[in-house]
């Protein structure tokens, strides 16, 4: 089947699946990609399951369908397949072609690296949550009924911490790109995109985004690396 695709959509909760939140965005991204390729979607499968789990019956069905139809498995984002390196390794070993629309030119090595980064990020978030809850509990906080203002303050701190980690990881890459002779912000944005690196929110790079990350890294680079 020439340019045939099996579309795989995944959300993490039943609530998301019922409401359509997340699914529509994935479907739109996949359809745009297929239109550009001049292909067609042979089937669309939707799974409601956490990216951490390895038992994914709908994904297994999608892989089987790709084999029968000699089609390519298509997802909107790499993390829709899995956030664990071991699962991605098993998927690569099946021999089924697959494409992530957010990074369509990624090779096997890049997929392993991006999967490792996603798994590490997931583990960091989980560990921070456990530490924060344990600290709150030791102070006598009521974990089941948090104060709204305190919860918002904690959320802001979590967001700030995630931004710091991102700058600490991407900042050196920006300096490396500059060292290679690329100095314009747009040129750096293009170079990051070519490496398959997305912004902290998973979006495309723009000159302003590059400037903000580089400025923060140059101002606080040493502190950011020490905090990791």
TrEMBL record:
Residue stretches making up the Resolvase/invertase-type recombinase catalytic domain: 4-140
Pfam families associated with the record: Resolvase
Keyword match Lipid metabolism: no
GO BP, sorted A to Z: DNA integration
One Gene Ontology molecular-function label: DNA binding
Keyword DNA-binding: yes
Domain of life from the UniProt record: Bacteria
Keyword annotations of the record: DNA integration, DNA recombination, DNA-binding
InterPro entries per record: Recombinase_CS (IPR006118), Resolv_N (IPR006119), Resolvase-like_N_sf (IPR036162), SSR_resolvase (IPR050639)
PANTHER family: DNA-INVERTASE FROM LAMBDOID PROPHAGE, SERINE RECOMBINASE PINE-RELATED
Protein name as annotated: Resolvase
The organism of origin for this protein: Tardibacter chloracetimidivorans
